[in-house]
Structure formats: C-alpha cells, structure tokens
Amino acid sequence: MRVFVAAGAVAALAAASTTQAQPADARIAARVEKVLKATPLIDGHNDVPWAIRQRVGVHPEKIDLATDTRHLVEAGGPGMMTDIPRLKAGRVGGQFWSVFIPSSFEGPLAVQMTLEQIDIVKSLPQRYPATFEMAYTADDVVRIHRGGKVASLVGVEGGHQIGDSLPVLRQLYAAGARYMTLTHSLNTRWADSATANPQHGGLTPFGEEVVREMNRLGMLVDLSHVSEDTMKDALRVAQAPVIFSHSGADGVADHARNVSDEVLALVKANRGVVMVNFLPNYVSRARMEWAAARSAEQARYNAPPFGGLYIGQPERAKAALAEWDKANPKPPVTLAMVADHVEYLAKVCGMGCIGIGSDFDGIGDTPDGLDGVDKFPDLLAELARRGWSDADLAGLAGGNVLRVMREAEAAAKRLQATTQPSYATLSGS
C-alpha cells in the first residue's frame, strides 16, 4: 500500500496531469532568468557520451556539438537532444554527463569502455573551451557557472563498471567520477536492480562496502535504477546524502524506477535529493501501460524464431502494428505532468529534496514541451506559474544538488581522517 498526500492535493495533481503547461508570461520568464543567473541549473543525467559512441564510436570529434544536432538520427531513433546552442538557450550551468555502458558488459572490458566514455566527456572542454569546463567539486560548479560556462561532471551509470573492484572505484573517482549508480538495468554481483528479478535482497556485504568507500571518497551514491531493497540498504549504510540522478515519484506514476513514499521518508532523513526524470514511461502510468501493450502486440505479430502471426512477413507485421497504433493512440505525456512529479516529491520529501535529472539523449521519446536541453526554463516557469517562490525554484534548479555535493565532500573529509581505503573483495577474502 502506498501512502499519498492529502486527497485534495492528489486530485489537484491528477487534474494538472491532464492539461498542458501554460505559456510563461514575460514576468515569469524574467523571474526564471534571474534565478538561473544566480543559481546554476544542474541536470543530473544526460547520455550524450553514449549517444556520441552510438553514432561515431570513440571519435567524438566527428560530431560538432556547436551546431544543431537534431538531424543526427541513430538506428531509427530520434535526433540528439543536446547541443551547445540549446544548452545556452536552456541556461544549463552544470551537467552530470552519464558515463554509461550496457549492463551486459563486465570485467576488464567494462572498465575499458568506462574510461573511454570518461574520455569522451573530457573531450568536450578540450574541443569547446569557451563553453565547457570540467568540475570536480561544488565550488567548481559555482565558479564555472559564474564564468558563463557549463560545469561538466562525470556520473558513472552502473556498478558493473567497476569490475567488482574497490581499487577500480577509486581510480574512477581519480579520473573525475563524482557519482555512481549502484546498478543499471541488471543486477550486479552485489546489488539488486529495480528492473531484474531479486537476487540478493538488496545489497550484499560487499555492496555495503562499496557504499562506504564511495562515502569515504566523496563520490555520490546514486540510487536510480536500483531495487527498493537496495535503496533501503544503501540509505541504512550511507554516511552522506544520496542522490537519485534520474527518477520520479511512485505516488504519481507507479513504476519500479520511481521512488516510493516509504523510501522518500528515508531520503528526507538522509538529506538526499531526487532528480526528476523525463522518460514518458516513468512520468505516466498510462503511457507505460500503453507501451507494454504495444510491445506485446508487436510480439504477437512477429516473435522469432518460432512464434508470431506474421513471422517471416515483416511488411504484414509492420502494417498490422500500424493499424494497432491507429486504434490505440499514444497517451499524451506533458511538461505539466513532469511538474506534477516535482510537486509531489516536494510535498512528501521536502523542498530540499528535489532536482532535475532529464535523461536527455538516453531516452527515445520526451514529454511534450520538454524535447531538448533548451526547454529547462519552461519547466521552472510552469512551477512559478503554480506559485513557487524564487528560492524554491533555485533549490530545484541546482541549489539542492550543490548542498548535497558539499555535504558529501565534508563527510569524505571526516572519513578520510579516520578511515583507510577498503580492500574488501566480492569473495570476502
């Protein structure tokens, strides 16, 4: 059973979910501009490094982010959602670039690919020094934003990327990683994922040691993608605030990737932050159910190697799916519905608990009104229209994340004064 906010508040959220965000008037636009001039807008999750790799491999020089990238379509998906002109239009002041590799890669290859992805991140300020600068601390982010650049931070999206090695974890920190998501879509050998069948019941003893070592280093523990049991175990062990780099509110849209009210209470006590994700399936339960039904229908038409009504007949299968799409229109997902998640989190977890984690360039679809990095101010304008103060908008934009970073840095300083690096292993030997 989930605990919801007061019935009137829920009804208001439901009503807002069915409407489009209203255009911002000049007064609200000026307020948002003032907020973002004083406070860096920090997005917790952007998959540009993997989007680049998917298109040109480990040759980032082959994509020019100084130009519009919407035409750079890959494998039938959308064009890119990020480029320098749109980052400037979106007033982005800090960006955690996701250093992602699929969960299917493990061991030394996973470590190699992770370092290659970090190299792609570091190529950005090398190629565009007037736009990007690498950041490693909260003070770096503030300084770089004041200088008119985008503070570029590294976030590792999956515990499989350390190869079950705490020395590798330390070297990723030395290479610039300032958060790590404990799992991605699959379980690791030491932590359960939200989107895989439970294997460990949360964190194993080695997994708990990973969290402790991350706290000692000053690397933020990211609980997006992990199971609820893993969330609870990590919050029990953590000695610094945690983050959810790109997750929503389960009380608004029931999904394994979103955060329950029970966990939100723990996050509030931990002083952590949940950075709201834009993926439509996480924003809207109706959209998730539609997507699941469509996938099932697609399998019914063409499920190799033995099943499917039109197996071996791709054109018939394509035509049948087109007819299904016509009869079953995609439920709309809007910027206003993302704002509903933000407001719900703020009500349950507190104004200090919220942030933005778009997942741009890692998602195949976006909410109406949030199709690229230039649209961040529109989300803040929607919340300003709903009555949010400038201080609340500043906290959402980046103030809360800066506070979490500073507290994690202070915890690391304390822990390093009393605790030596851990050499724990998966086997315990």
For CATH, the homologous superfamily of the largest domain is named as Metal-dependent hydrolases
| CATH T-level fold name of the largest domain | TIM Barrel
Largest sheet features: 6 strands, parallel
Averaged pLDDT: 93
The best one-word shape is: globular
CATH architecture of the largest domain: Alpha-Beta Barrel
Distance between the termini: 41 Å
Strand content: 5-15%
Enumerate how many helices there are, as a single number: 16
Q: Oligomer, anyone? A: single chain
Judged by helices, strands and strand pairing, the structural class is alpha/beta
**Fraction of residues in helices?**
40-55%
Q: SSE string, helix = H, strand = E?
A: HHEHHEHEHEHEHEHEHEHHHHEHH
Radius of gyration: 21 Å
> Segments where pLDDT lies below 50 for 5+ residues?
1-19
**Overall number of structural domains:** 2
What is the class of the largest domain in the CATH system? Alpha Beta
Task: Describe the 3D structure.
The chain has 429 residues and is α/β, with parallel strands linked by helices. The protein folds into two domains: 23-282 and 350-418, TIM Barrel; 285-332. It contains 16 helices and nine strands. It has helices at 7-17, 26-38, 48-56, 84-89, 107-127, 138-146, 166-174, 205-217, 228-237, 261-270, 280-283, 285-301, 314-327, 335-349, 376-385, 390-418, and strands at 41-46, 92-99, 132-134, 150-157, 177-181, 220-222, 243-244, 273-276, 354-356. Strands 1, 2, 3, 4, 5 and 6 form a six-stranded parallel beta sheet that branches. The protein is globular.
